[in-house]
């Protein structure tokens, strides 16, 4: 059910990473990363979620929000002074220079916070969920990479329904991300999310059992 690259040698542990076992999880917009991480969390695994961290680094009073307000003006804020995320979404995904500006501001802040959260994690392994794992070369932080995969037409349909965004906006977000083929080529394990949530959950449980066997033994050997 879960596709795993068993034929190839076990990926080498990168020399520049922490002693924590980090399983990267990625997928395009609307592919089901949150659905998969919810299940890993229910199994007791620590989740480091780039989308959540991206929210933390722009909270009221943060350096991130101050710089965004200086750049886009006060019109980018809601009445209570917090970020108008829908307005910023429209802004950056319709203008590649603005998107690049925002990425350059936020990605170093997001990376720093994620590294701290990895260092603080206590489960046998942790899940690092990052939409732009492949694009941002973050697989260097990971022992393995899971790709949550479904056809692009499904990503589009699910993201439009969830966000109430137009087809054109979701398509422009998808166009700014790696292609399905590029992402799949970076995968050690693939979760097929083209069917029901139950089918997705079963695959998460199978991977969790495999990682728990493998990495609890590793942790005991290294302690
Ligand atoms: C533009 C913002 C404010 C829109 O917020 P919104 O609440 O509408 O969306 P959310 O943050 O939940 O992102 C939804 C999805 O959009 C995609 N996405 C978000 N940012 C980017 C980006 N810079 N490039 C490509 N895809 C992106 C991802 O698939 C993500 O899961 C927000 O996405 C943002 O701050 N983006 C820049 C930070 C970033 O790169 N985040 C992605 C994690 S590294
Ligand atoms: N197998 C499935 N069947 C039906 N709906 C699903 C399935 N998997 C996910 N969804 C729904 O599709 C939408 C997108 O899923 P989810 O939020 O998990 O994707 P994501 O990869 O985290 O998206 P993003 O990159 O935008 O954060 C959600 O509304 C979710 O409930």
Structural features, described:
With 223 residues, this protein is of the alpha/beta class. The chain is built from nine helices and six strands. The chain folds into two domains: 144 residues, 3-Layer(aba) Sandwich (Rossmann fold), CATH 3.40.50; 73 residues, P-loop containing nucleotide triphosphate hydrolases (Rossmann fold, 3-Layer(aba) Sandwich), CATH 3.40.50. A six-stranded mixed beta sheet has the order 1-6-5-2-4-3, with helices on both faces. Helix 1 packs across helix 9. The chain is globular and about 50 Å long. This is Dephospho-CoA kinase. It is an enzyme of class 2 (transferase).
Topology:
Blueprint: E1 3-4, E2 22-26, H1 33-42, E3 46-49, H2 50-56, H3 63-72, H4 85-93, H5 96-120, E4 126-129, E5 144-149, H6 152-163, H7 167-175, H8 180-185, E6 189-192, H9 197-222
Parallel strand pairs: 2-4, 2-5, 3-4, 5-6
Antiparallel strand pairs: 1-6
Helix pairs in contact: 1-9, 6-7
The structure holds dephospho coenzyme A and adenosine-5'-triphosphate (ATP).
Adenosine-5'-triphosphate binds near residues 30, 131, 196, 197 and 200.
